[in-house]
DNA sequence: GTCAAATGTCATTGG
DNA sequence: CCCCAATGACATTTG
């Protein structure tokens, strides 16, 4: 077993993979003796995680969606792609043309059936056209391909020969996998393709044959009957590279894709390959040959980066969270607040200067040191909390509301859509603003909408939004505009159809270049889907021999439509079908527009909510700054108060006791000294000073 | 086989 | 009354 594994791993398998990467499907398990485990278990060991990479289905299908980005196939796929890239890079260095030569080197054993594609006699036990009905089942690949391998044989060299033989024959019909073969079977078009292969009297010299189905030139060369090794100079070109690329696509020619799209796909494939060598040095992920797969990778990257970027940028709070919950309360007070409250009856200076909760004791601190202390203590975070507390005090906020507000400010998102709607809370006003804006926007956007289609509508929305101050709108506007084109306009431009069918709505594109692969991928899927859907009514129309196109049926104005109907003698059933087609077609477009509009509305509302949240946060920040400014003014006033009070002297030249007297501001700007005790209420005016600062 | 998303289709409404 | 767009609800397709 070990020797077998080593042999297979180091020689045959690598070669097989190489050939396989060129588009030749091969099922190695079918070449193993039946008592051996499947090949992948020989190589990798038993694992249920192993799944065979569907290179050929990837290449055989022009869209290439067979490999999911998360598939475990991808590792092997990329590794193989890398190897293939090396091979092709090598090819570019040595051969100026875009040609890959695959050399088949094998030793023919005497008496064995030395069969190459061109010289294989038609003695195979099962002919191609009479192969089994389950071509996809493992173990039948040989029979389907007309192989003469003997599965029960344990002669490895013979298996090797058979294997290479099969490879050789597969090379000749390059890129034709089992699925393709199945298609051919269904269409009964494969006789002329395979006929030469079955012809044992085929001349041994090189012959150029034209594939009857694809028109592809196939250069077939005989294997030397006598050679032990085929020299490189003698070895025929199995296929040029264009064939390698072309054949999987051309194998689909009988499908629904038209010739134009085939060529588009082919050219894109070639372009991607041309870029491959360059890009491979930069990013291993770009080793991918298959454009759709590469798009998948890009899609994932784009989606990840896009999402992360968006969430970070869109949801970054504009207001820094409060950092320290420790007591920010400066010891402002040098007086008992109750005394101040009782004595400063004329104005509410006490409330401004000494919030009641801050000073309950009458301890006197040095007035002159207070501002310095404050400046040290009152950093931004502390003042923010002060602001909240004052907000709670001055605006009637309950402590709960204040804490809720702080939670909102602390939250990273800044987006609390269902936030606490107290009548005083900003979110309440926000929601009302939001609803009013949305209603106005929708009315202005949608009421003027006529039959002109949806794109104009979207652009109107975009215009409106761009007039606003939303910094994020351009991204979404681009996005919405891309998603709202009329798809019928691009129905005949396969590579433009993505414009109308971008369903990656939740990903805000960062750059158009990154957008491109995503929408392209979607476009292909969409194209296929639309083709199929359009084909349904199309086929009904064809079946009923409707003499004009569905496009006309659907898109013609009523008058012209009626004229068209009048021009033909149509049966009742035909008329019914035509009306159905028209109704369905119009409704289909209407539904698409409706959904896009709905989506745009949602996106716009989302933008609006974000914008209002930013606005709210900015206003909250502004409010905090105002409160801080107010706090500074209070401190300044307090400082001046202390300074003035300390300079006052009574008749005896002694300073007034702050416990017994207090300064008071009057409405006309003067300051009076009043006793604090109740019996001095009648106001012994000790001093009067005009202070106009 | 199940599920979610996308899309198609039908019925209804209102302009 | 007819035409048509819009839309909710359900069906179908697809990955």
In short, what is this structure?
This protein has 693 residues and is mostly helical. It has helices at 2-21, 39-44, 55-60, 73-94, 141-144, 156-172, 178-187, 191-198, 241-250, 259-280, 291-315, 337-343, 349-353, 370-377, 380-394, 399-410, 426-446, 454-467, 473-483, 512-543, 550-555, 558-567, 572-647, and strands at residues 207-210, 217-220, 661-665, 670-675, 688-690.
Question: Can you walk me through this structure?
Answer:
The strands form 2 sheets. Strands 3-4-5 form a 3-stranded antiparallel beta sheet, with no helix packed on it. Strands 1-2 form a two-stranded antiparallel ribbon. The protein is elongated and about 140 Å long. β3 and β4 form a beta hairpin. α9 crosses α10. It is mostly helical and 693 residues long. The N and C termini lie far apart (101 Å). Helix content is 53%, strand content 3%. The longest helix has 76 residues. The structure holds a DNA duplex (15 and 15 nucleotides).
């Amino acid at each position: 077993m070990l020797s077998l594994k080593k042999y297979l791993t180091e020689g045959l398998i690598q070669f097989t993979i190489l050939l396989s990467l060129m588009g030749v499907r091969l099922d190695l398990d079918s070449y193993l003796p039946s008592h051996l485990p499947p090949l992948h278990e020989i190589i990798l060991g038993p694992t249920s995680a192993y799944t065979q990479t569907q290179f050929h289905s990837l290449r055989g299908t022009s869209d290439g969606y067979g490999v999911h980005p998360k598939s475990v196939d991808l590792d092997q796929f990329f590794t193989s792609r890398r190897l293939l890239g090396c091979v092709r890079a090598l090819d570019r260095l040595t051969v100026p043309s875009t040609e890959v030569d695959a050399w088949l080197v094998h030793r023919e054993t005497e008496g064995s059936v030395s069969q190459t594609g061109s010289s294989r006699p038609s003695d195979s036990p099962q002919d191609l056209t009479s192969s089994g009905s389950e071509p996809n089942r493992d173990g039948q690949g040989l029979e389907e391909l007309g192989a003469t391998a003997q599965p029960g044989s344990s002669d490895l060299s013979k298996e090797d020969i058979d294997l290479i033989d099969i490879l050789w024959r597969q090379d000749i019909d390059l890129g034709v996998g089992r699925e393709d073969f199945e298609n051919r079977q269904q269409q009964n078009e494969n006789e002329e393709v395979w006929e030469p292969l079955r012809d044992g009297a085929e001349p041994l010299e090189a012959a150029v044959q034209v594939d009857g189905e694809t028109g592809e030139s196939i250069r077939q060369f005989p294997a030397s009957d006598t050679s032990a090794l085929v020299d490189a100079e003698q070895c025929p070109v199995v296929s040029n590279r264009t064939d390698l690329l072309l054949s999987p696509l051309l194998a689909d020619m009988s499908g629904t894709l038209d010739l134009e799209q085939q060529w588009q796909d082919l050219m894109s494939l070639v372009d991607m390959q041309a870029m491959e060598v360059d890009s491979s040095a930069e990013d291993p992920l770009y080793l991918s040959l298959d454009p759709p797969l590469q798009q998948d990778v890009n899609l994932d990257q784009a989606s990840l980066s896009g999402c992360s970027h968006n969430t970070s940028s869109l949801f970054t709070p504009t207001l820094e969270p409060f950092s320290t919950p420790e007591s920010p309360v400066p010891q402002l007070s040098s007086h008992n607040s109750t005394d101040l409250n009782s004595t400063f009856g004329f104005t509410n200076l006490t409330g401004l200067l000494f919030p009641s909760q801050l000073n309950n004791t009458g301890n006197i601190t040095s007035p002159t040191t207070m501002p310095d202390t404050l400046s040290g203590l009152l950093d931004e975070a502390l003042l923010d909390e002060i602001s909240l507390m004052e907000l709670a005090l001055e605006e009637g906020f309950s402590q709960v509301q204040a804490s809720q507000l702080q939670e909102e400010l602390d939250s990273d998102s800044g987006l609390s859509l269902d936030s606490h709607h107290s009548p005083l809370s900003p979110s309440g006003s926000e929601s009302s603003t939001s609803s009013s804006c949305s209603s106005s926007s929708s009315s202005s956007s949608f009421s003027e909408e006529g039959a002109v289609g949806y794109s104009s509508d979207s652009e109107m929305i975009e215009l409106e939004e761009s007039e606003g101050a939303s910094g994020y709108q351009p991204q979404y506007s681009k996005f919405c505009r891309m998603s709202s084109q009329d798809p019928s306009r691009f129905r005949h431009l396969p590579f433009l159809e993505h414009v109308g069918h971008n369903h990656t709505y939740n990903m805000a594109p960062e750059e158009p270049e990154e957008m491109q692969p995503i929408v392209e991928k979607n476009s292909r899927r969409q194209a296929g889907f639309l083709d199929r859907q359009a084909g349904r009514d199309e086929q009904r129309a064809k079946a009923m021999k409707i003499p004009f196109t569905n496009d006309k049926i659907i898109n013609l104005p009523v008058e012209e439509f009626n004229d068209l109907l009048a021009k033909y003698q149509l049966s009742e059933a035909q008329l019914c079908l035509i009306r159905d087609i028209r109704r369905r077609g119009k409704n289909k477009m209407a539904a698409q527009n409706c959904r896009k509009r709905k989506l745009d509305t949602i996106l716009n509302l989302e933008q609006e909510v974000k914008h209002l949240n930013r606005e709210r946060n900015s206003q909250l920040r502004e409010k905090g700054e105002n409160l801080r400014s107010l706090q500074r003014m209070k401190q300044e006033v307090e400082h001046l108060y202390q300074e003035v009070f300390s300079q006052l002297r009574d008749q005896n030249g002694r300073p007034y006791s702050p416990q017994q007297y207090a300064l008071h501001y009057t409405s006309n700007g003067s300051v009076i000294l009043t006793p604090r005790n109740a019996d001095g209420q009648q106001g012994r005016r000790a001093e009067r000073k005009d202070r106009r600062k």
